[in-house]
Amino acid sequence: MRGITPNDKRDRRHLLSENLDNIIEAMKQSGIPDPVGIVVDATDEYGGALCLSALRKSGLTKKEAALYQKTMIAEMAERNQFPTATFVVSWAEANQLLPLTSPTAKKNLIELQTEYSLGTSSKYLVVAIGNGGNTYSISDIPEMPTPDRMIRDGQHRHSGIHFCNRKFPR
Questions:
Q1: Would you give the end-to-end CA distance of the chain in angstroms?
Q2: Is the pLDDT of residue 159 over 50?
Q3: φ, ψ dihedrals at 52, nearest 5°
């Protein structure tokens, strides 16, 4: 393992800053009472795996998902754009997924939950996954629908996978 560099952290901060407004809107509309926003570098080992998983969950076969992801990454590279995918998951799902992406994620999630009362106050977590690590952002979303005002129509509506057309700094 090569370790995390300042450029790695810069790149993940860029993922957060370029996608924060869209992911917060997706969190508000998700119907999930304790949403966690995730934005990933689709070319990252773990980010790419999460993208494939979301594509499979949307109904694509393993082969179709891999082809779709490969095609989107190639098309975006041709346009000098950075392949980014966004997801909204519940706090419980984030606690299962994020420790698979970083050796410090479980500890970080516990500390962030304790310090900020995430999901139970107006503060919510958004995570960028890329370049071999995670970067966390606490977003204050006072207008987040509360569970008593949410539409209850069965399963939660996840935001799915979205490849974002954002230029990446180099």
A1: 23
A2: no
A3: -60, -40
Cα(144)–Cα(149) distance, integer angstroms? 10
Q: Which pLDDT score, from 0 to 100, does residue 80 have?
A: 85
Q: Is the pTM of this model over 0.85?
A: no
For the purposes of burial, counting CB atoms within 10 Å of the CB of 94, is it exposed (0-12), middle (13-18) or buried (19 or more)? Answer: buried
Tell me the C-alpha distance between 67 and 56, whole Å: 12
Mean pLDDT across the stretch 76-95? 88
According to DSSP, residue 76 is labeled: H
Q: Binning pLDDT at 50, 70 and 90, where does residue 3 land?
A: low
Q: What Cα–Cα distance (Å) separates residue 109 from each residue in 113, 134, 165?
A: 6, 11, 29
Residues 6+ apart with CB under 8 A from 149: none
Residue showing tokens 């129509």: 153
Q: How many residues does the chain have?
A: 170
Helix, coil or strand: residue 92: helix
Q: Are 53 and 138 in contact (CB under 8 A)?
A: no
* Residue range 34-51, pLDDT digits in tens: 899 999 998 999 888 888
In the numeric block, the tokens 């392949």 are attached to: 83
